[in-house]
Design goal:
The structure is a homotetramer of 369-residue chains. Chain A is of the alpha+beta class. Chain A is built from eight helices and 18 strands. Chain A has a five-stranded antiparallel beta sheet, with helices on one face. A five-stranded antiparallel beta sheet of chain A has the order 9-8-10-16-11.
């Protein structure tokens, strides 16, 4: 499957940082889902570099839907979105043909592709490709909204500074989706941005943790073995550049708890089964229990920094030193959150389609009844 | 794909806790891999309940390889291992047909399968099914050993007590693989076991964190998008009951670091490209870099406890109280580690087969050249 | 995927002709489908050797459902059926370790599995494995019956003798499903059987053509590219040993027609869209049009014959002569038809589940509304 | 998987007849395969309408490789080729929004996509999409050529007129690959074209049979169950519009033979195992035996004809008459053969990659040793 993700609803990514165009093919969505170009544009805008805490490479992201949409709605056949690369300065990268940037895929790409890889700007490994993922994700997000499902991600921690947690989940999600720097507590957000600016000034970079909540997912979605909701989501999330950890509910922090503290007691609430806590992140035995999904992703500090680093010239097989040039982000966490939402939406569309069929996921589908 | 995992090498699980038999079909392994029943038996033994810190249900795990092995070696066609259930006391569970155990899949199974699920002992969701996964994993582990790849997992934290980290990785792995309670520091291990016994006495349970190291994986394995090594491994690992988090290298702990601290500088070492630290867990851009793989799994405290808990009767749709009976583990972390090794081996066999082919993974395969 | 077939509903086969047991894992079926062991037994009986026109190896086919069925209904989790091999005479086959039977997989298995294959009785390539496929197929057939879908296959041609075509499709299908030698015209059937007996007496074998009709499949099932109904069905059908051709509707015979003759004109009939002819076999653009599915499979003459044949000793790399011993069928076409029905049912369950979801395929599913 | 085909090497198609652009994403090919735009152009030219026996819609097929090729060679990451639609006359098709062309997918698309489909010119079902398949296939063909594998397809029968069979297979294949109307006997070809012209004049269309030979495929490729070489090839071939039958070797014609006539005796020839006949089409038990692959595809007569036909208005649910307008082919068989070659190449790349890995399929791969 490789660069394709999903079974019933699936996405295929293509493109390189400095190539002609990047893009995504989204297949398996039901026909009739409204596609609003402005919503795609909005998501791309949220993913774009922002202020002084991002790279100087700003792309207009002039996307074009070249198939799969007719008269403003999905046709049910593959939807291809392409985004031409416009602001490309390839001269910056020629050095990287042989000198590996620590923390980057330069060396692993070289080993895997035997030197035939497009090394410019990270090639196919570039975060640039997430623009295509974001555009496709925007369509999946719209499909889920039609079923009452909402996704929201905030920067729960960045440079050691913590945001507040979700309180009123629906309201919080609504607010997050309009924000460029997605935090629930603006004061914490301001501190984080200041920390990013300081790191940038020092030629360094920061990482952080994203927390995502999803409301409205019906109970009963996911499989007991292998295609658990956790497994499918994590499979997708780990391909977002820089993500090195995924945890659901209390996750690692919950491992010191006793069972009596961790277990989420069930209660009836308005005729619905609910849990009093949500340490399991809305998932029991790999399957949704009707509570909000809750998970966190660890985003490592951006690997490209403007400091001298030890490395190797992998073509010559000898030690080397590197001071990267070019345009890079001192932090990507605020941009990554849009990509997390996209992958989440795609994974959920896939699992819902497994259970309810393409028909069920569609406008007249039976699962909202 | 559901209960099947893998693309080139794949495993399919079947069976229920109190059914006739559980089992696994392992397909796509090359022909000619030696299958030593005693090694399978050894892994099953490591997975079996242990002393006073485990359930009273002890199964002999009399496995039988019913296909795919001929004259002591894999034939290359599907290998099916079955393990009959022998020590079954189904009377214990009838209550659970309607009263959900908090933290368990009773309720989600009911919603997903509309009440047709085999609810006895957790049915298909039971940790019992991991015996089949362990047996199949033992074959995959042997296949990897033939290629010089070694996997070792230890309990890095349990009930708040920490084990020491890996020092001499090869030696540490070797030692771990013989241990029933896999820790590197026996003193820490004794404390952990004592903590488990205390929790058990209080009718409660504990969780912890497993850390896994894999040596000998060649550089260049994994895909840039979606089928990243992290994504594939996490996909498999999250189906192990109780695992709620997976992180690679420094993972969540590394998110407060600066890029200059997190990045793993490259250096030549004996003609080989190595990194001076391993915060990326041996993976850059989703692809192995030749360093040991390093990752951790969060194991939540065992959900079944012997204390009264709030819950619901989901058939009646009303609140209920539960004091579980039956036989359960106050901790599963020491048993789960065998399963983690198994899933890791299966995932690696799959990715290696993608890159080097069934042929390459075989005895005369080209990737060890 | 290899020995696994299907995406939403999938089957995995295992076992060898002279191994311990053969079996199948059927995954993805909805919960609550009644499983009648007598129906499985009936299908296995229809597949079993029959009278003087079949092999002397008669297996009792004592199948056992070891998972996935609880209180007489599917649980929704993997259903594993195993069938022990009982009547095994392995001495017959030792010669075949090095001398290839023409038309068989002895040589190709040797090349593929480097001599590690279980060569006894064809090993995993044996028609014996179709017993497991038949047992699993019986469950899929029952699932489809619950949705009003009926499958029937007859021997439309054997040893040059033709059966009559379908007239009243529902009645014809009903009749076929009770027959051991499935023809619509009993006189033609008697002639075919006589021809088989004559071939057998001469140490030779015959082939033929199977024709399958399926009624009740709703319009709109299948995908435009790659996962066309034809493509999915053919994918499965070609793994039935001996099948060398698959055609839909008029197939090869229709290629001399003009478009004006071939096209199936549409007409309204009782408020339903129907076609006046069915040269397209119920499929337009890879998708069902609501007419009965109609396709034919070419079954080559059984390769094992009792005549001296030129061959090679592939281990020595030299020419050899072969007079096979053992027990074999002078015809398999009458047995193969049960397997064709099984594969058809499995493929349709998969495609219906893609469209209507596991939920839609279930008892309360929405697609019969 | 839907609009994606393949496991290790896979293709995803997108686009509609009258949309912005059609295209294909080809993933899983090894890095370093030379990509000659002129060879892609050549294949597209062979697929393009030809003389008076084809549609008046002639597209320049100005393809663009937007990713996956760097410095003239594959990078190993997804290769996307797009082909803009230029010569579009959508006015011709508005009638088809409600009146089904017999033999076409208008009605089935409507049922499947609930009226949201792009109905213009057949939308995603259009033969136009095969241009993208052809372009991607050209790359796969080049990859196979690097391994000594050659594919050739001729029109073995058209409008009842027969071409001669393969004699010197390598020479014949070489010749075919340069021909616009691919026959081995030019006289037969001239007669076929005359028959097509006559049919065209009468407002009608013809069909035929394509025969494909592949040389150089090593023995041992394919799987015993489900992913047989026949099954995988047929899966792909049946998605080519108009193909209604696929048979290997003697296929349907061989079903009247006795086993003693059909079986292909093995013989040693220059140290290699060969068969004296090739009724099995180079495949035993689903796996290549080292002989040339040989198979035939039934191509139905082009459904669009210029005669009045009975049909329905599916939106109104009433009978209707249709005289299609627009531009169409009286025959597509000469164009379809390029697509058959493409699908064949893609399927073989996939199966070879399964066996030998991405590495084995690459330039320095081990399977040519």
């Amino acid at each position: 499957m490789k660069n394709t993700f999903g079974s019933s609803v699936q996405i295929t990514l293509f493109g390189e940082s400095h190539g002609k165009t990047i893009g995504a093919v989204l297949d398996g969505l039901p026909a009739g889902i409204p596609v609003f170009p402005e919503r795609i544009a909005k998501q791309l805008e949220l993913r774009r570099p922002y202020g002084k805490i991002s790279t100087g490479r700003v792309e207009a992201d002039r996307f074009e839907i070249v198939s799969g949409v007719f008269e403003g709605k999905t046709t049910g056949t593959p939807l291809c979105i392409i985004i031409p690369n416009e602001n490309v300065q390839s001269g910056d990268y020629t050095l990287l043909r042989s000198v590996a940037r620590p923390g980057h895929a330069d060396y692993t790409a070289y080993v895997k592709y035997h030197g035939f890889e497009d090394y410019r700007g990270g090639g196919h490994f570039s975060g640039r490709v997430t623009a295509a993922l974001t555009a496709a994700g925007a369509v999946a997000i719209a499909a889920l909204q039609g079923k009452g499902i909402r996704i929201g991600t905030h920067i729960t921690r960045c440079a050691g500074i913590c945001d507040r947690g979700f309180v009123d989940m629906k309201e919080d999600i609504g607010e997050l989706n309009g924000k460029v720097f997605a935090v629930l507590d603006e004061k914490a957000g301001a501190e984080m941005q200041e920390a990013i600016r300081i790191a940038a000034k020092e030629g360094d970079s920061v990482g952080g943790i994203l927390e995502t909540a999803v409301t409205g997912v019906p109970a009963g979605v996911g499989e007991p073995w292998f295609d658990t909701l956790e497994g499918i989501l994590a499979h997708g999330l780990f391909s977002i550049p820089g993500i090195k950890g995924v945890q659901f509910g209390a996750g690692f922090d919950g491992t010191d708890l006793r069972g009596s503290e961790f277990n989420d007691p069930f209660r009836m609430e308005g005729g619905q089964v609910r849990t009093l806590s949500n340490n399991n992140g809305g998932i029991n035995g790999g399957i949704t229990n009707g509570m909000p999904l809750l998970f966190r992703c660890a985003v490592k500090p951006t690997p490209t920094i403007f400091r001298e680093q030890k490395t190797v010239d992998f073509r010559k097989g000898e030690d080397a030193m590197l001071v990267p040039k070019g345009r890079h982000d001192p932090a990507i966490i605020h941009r990554a959150r849009v990509v997390v939402d996209s992958v989440t939406a795609l994974a959920l569309c896939d699992l819902l389609a497994q259970r309810y069929g393409t028909e069920g996921l569609g406008g007249t589908g039976c699962f909202t009844d």
